[in-house]
Amino acid sequence: MSAEDSTVNVSELDQLLAELLERIDNGEKLDPDALVGQYPQHATGLRAFFIGNAQLDQMRQTGSTGSRVPQKHPVTRYRVAIVCCS
């Protein structure tokens, strides 16, 4: 895979994740397995997204960050960051 292919792939994944976040914000319940099946080229990124999203939901519900250090700001919004190394 060339660097150009990797950039295009990340861009496609970014677009897909933005769409999924919008759907979640609109109250839609997403099926992670169905989406991984629909977009197998982004399986790793989608799985990481859904794991992170579930962790954020849990933190919002419990008010816990899993850290022993008190947090100054509660988790109320989320941001997706994708780091890709070749």
Please explain how this structure is put together.
This protein is mainly alpha-helical and about 90 residues long. It has one domain. Helix content is about 60%, strand content about 0%. The protein is built from 3 helices and no strands. The protein has helices at about 5-25, 30-40, 45-60. Helix 2 (about 30-40) runs antiparallel to helix 3. It is globular and about 35 Å long. The chain starts with a helix and ends in a 24-residue tail after the last helix.
Q: How many strands?
A: 0
Residue fraction in strands: under 5%
Shape summary: globular
In the residues, how many domains can be counted?
1
**Mean of the pLDDT scores?**
77
Question: What is the straight-line distance between the termini?
Answer: 9 Å
Fraction of residues in H or I helices: 55-70%
Uncertain ranges: none
Global Rg: 15 Å
Structural class: mainly alpha
Outline the biggest β-sheet: none
The ordered H/E elements are: HHH
Helix count equals 3
What's the arrangement of secondary structure elements?
Elements: H1 3-25, H2 32-38, H3 43-62
Keywords:
mainly alpha
Brief summary:
With about 90 residues, the protein is mostly helical.
